[in-house]
Amino acid sequence: MSDAVIEARGLGLTFQTNDGPVHALKDVNLTIGKGEFVSFIGPSGCGKTTFLRAVAALEHPTEGSLTVNGMTPDAARQARAYGYVFQAAGLYPWRTIAGNIRLPLEIMGFDRAEQAARVERVLELVELKGFGNKFPWQLSGGMQQRASIARALAFDADILLMDEPFGALDEIVRDHLNEQLLALWARTGKTIGFVTHSIPEAVYLSTKIVVMSPRPGRITDVIESPLPRERPLDIRDTPEFIEVAHRVREGLRAGHGHD
After folding, report:
1. For residues 8 and 195, what is the distance between their CA atoms, to the nearest angstrom?
2. Last residue of a domain, one of 156, 176, 202
3. Total structural domains within the chain
């Protein structure tokens, strides 16, 4: 029995448009193991988000196979195998932070006491304890994104899918949230799939970096990170970090050589 959580084999995804077919993904082979932190990086339109959305059953592959916890993505969605964090926090302005986090739990039919306990626990996990009664507009952008992560964690799925969650934030806030996300990952042991445009972010966060080429999205390199799991921010100044970042950059360049 393999500990593969996400497995893609010969995966392809073509969108039919009025201007003809768009090949978003082509011949993608990838295995993500339990507890890995995997970043996807590549130019805009290379299929990073499409791959994540396919895992979440929000898009449907047109060729090859994709399994999540040994199931089809649709079955995994019904089994609530993952939480999904979008680029924008997507919080409902008329609900408090606790109310936003509670929403999926309400939909899933958890009783009120269980909802309250889970909301408290995830607020603590993302360091927002005491902010449950605030409304989204009362929180900074970084805090809203943490609330969005808390909502994705509330029903305790083993997999967390994150589509450029910090892309719109300034660098100082982003650095802080990267540190917090690593601490959260260390505490929860979840499997994380993370889409980013930032080479330093990908290298800092990941145990494995998947470098993708421009459309049709193919994998040009899969880099197993040699960095230790304990990563202070200043690890970014070390030769090991710079070497991995260089290899990512090379992979992105190589990808431009495809037809």
Report:
1. 17
2. 156
3. 2
Give the pLDDT mean for 44-49.
86
SS3 of the chain: the string is CCCEEEEEEEEEEEEEECCEEEEEEEEEEEEEECCCEEEEECCCCCCHHHHHHHHCCCCCCCEEEEEECCECHHHHHHCCCEEEECCCCCCCCCCCHHHHHHHHHHHCCCCHHHHHHHHHHHHHHCCCCCCCCCCHHHCCHHHHHHHHHHHHHCCCCCEEEEECCCCCCCHHHHHHHHHHHHHHHHHHCCEEEEEECCHHHHHHHCCEEEEECCCCECEEEEEECCCCCCCCHHHHHCHHHHHHHHHHHHHHHHHCCCC
Q: What does the block give as tokens for 87?
A: 């680029």
Once rounded to an integer, what is the mean pLDDT over residues 150-158?
88
Last residue of a domain, one of 156, 174, 194: 156
Q: Are residues 144 and 93 in the same domain?
A: yes
User: What number is the average pLDDT over the span 65-87?
Assistant: 92
Its pTM stands at: 0.90
Residue 1's pLDDT is what? 38
Q: What pLDDT score was predicted for residue 259?
A: 42
Residues 246 and 174 grouped into a single domain: yes
- CATH number where 37 lies: 3.40.50.300
Q: Using 50, 70 and 90 to split pLDDT, how confident is the model at 258?
A: very low
Q: How confident is the model over 92-100, as a mean pLDDT?
A: 95
Is the confidence at residue 26, as pLDDT, over 80? yes
Query: Are residues 71 and 169 located together in one domain of the fold?
Result: yes
Q: Tell me: do 180 and 141 sit in the same domain.
A: no
Instruction: Tell me: do 165 and 250 sit in the same domain.
Output: yes
